[in-house]
Design goal:
The protein has 211 residues and is an alpha+beta fold. It has four helices and nine strands, in the order αβααβαβββββββ. Helix content is 11%, strand content 27%. A hairpin with a 4-residue loop joins strand 8 and strand 9. 37% of the residues are buried.
Length: 211
């Protein structure tokens, strides 16, 4: 028999290593993998409005509206996936027990290796990485004010227009970035997989502890 979520389960992609907030929520039984595969929201982040993707890639599909503040880590999803935006206090209330988002131990300036699993690869413009500001407040949900104003790493295909180079612009299974060299303690990283031929990016989030 067909499962009721058979079509839904086959969508898009998620990070399988290291542990993201999405994978933590799956382990807790709050979400299914298919929900974490499908955390798509407007790709013009940190802009708030829909519209053309910035130059020199404005021939890509226009962005839909990016996630609002407080809903960034779920790609703007406000269903069950909103739990990914929860503070430790909100999660503790939801689970009815003390909870702290698990943190990945990292060093400033190290290489951060990510593995993706794609269930529906899209024509990929690239990947963009954001991180919380120094002095951010973990008792508040992640907002633009809580993040550095610009990405700390971008990995983009440069071919334009995308529709003449679709076969080359493949999603990357293994992704390696250099973390900022000046961070200490707990920070949240937001990773976006940016699609060229739709208005969306797929959002993944990690809690890290800089040693």
């Amino acid at each position: 028999m067909n499962q009721p979520h058979a079509q839904t389960q086959l969508r898009h992609g998620r990070v399988t290593s290291p542990a993201s907030r999405g994978s933590v929520a799956v382990e807790l039984g709050l979400l299914g993998n298919w929900q974490v595969n499908e955390m798509e929201g407007g790709k013009n982040f940190p802009a708030l409005t829909a519209g053309p993707f910035p130059a020199p890639y404005q021939t890509d599909s226009d962005s839909v509206a990016p996630p609002g503040d407080g809903h960034i880590l779920s790609g703007g999803k406000v269903d069950a996936r909103d739990c990914l935006n929860f503070t430790n206090e909100e999660m503790s209330l939801k689970l009815n027990r003390p909870f702290t988002w698990p943190m990945l131990s990292v060093n400033p300036g190290q290489t951060f290796d990510v593995t993706w699993e794609y269930t529906a690869p899209h024509v990929t413009r690239g990947y963009s990485w954001f991180i919380t500001r120094d002095g951010w407040n973990p008792k508040q949900r992640i907002s633009r004010a809580q993040l550095e104003p610009t990405s700390f790493f971008d990995d983009f295909y440069t071919q334009v227009p995308y529709y003449s180079h679709s076969a080359e612009m493949k999603a990357k299974v293994n992704h390696h970035v250099t973390l900022p060299g000046n961070k200490k303690g707990h920070h949240v990283i937001v990773l976006m997989w940016i699609v060229a031929n739709t208005g969306n990016a797929f959002y993944q989030a990690f809690d890290v502890d800089f040693q």
